[in-house]
Amino acid sequence: MMNITDILQLVVLCAIIFIPLGYFAHRWLPRMAALVRLLFLKPRYVKSAGTLRRSSVKADHRHD
What is the chain's percent helix, strand, coil content, to nearest 5? Predict the structure, then answer.
């Protein structure tokens, strides 16, 4: 069973580790998250373009 001093030491140890890590990671973490989002998640707002059609070219019905 842990007493209050063990818990406080654990909290201080975690703060010593994670506060500088978060400070140094705040520069590259948003870029890394954007890269992961682009690579692994499909964008839901993009619709398919469909089939390309030329409006100036008409079909020649003699060759059908």
Answer: 60, 0, 40
pLDDT at 17 over 70: yes
pLDDT at 5 (0 to 100)? 95
Please give the Cα distance from 57 to 47 (Å, whole number).
25
Token look-up 């520069």 returns: 27
Could you tell me the sign of the dihedral formed by the alpha carbons of 23, 25, 31, 36, in that order? Answer: negative
Structure token pair of residue 31: 């870029």
> H helices of the chain, where?
4-25, 29-40
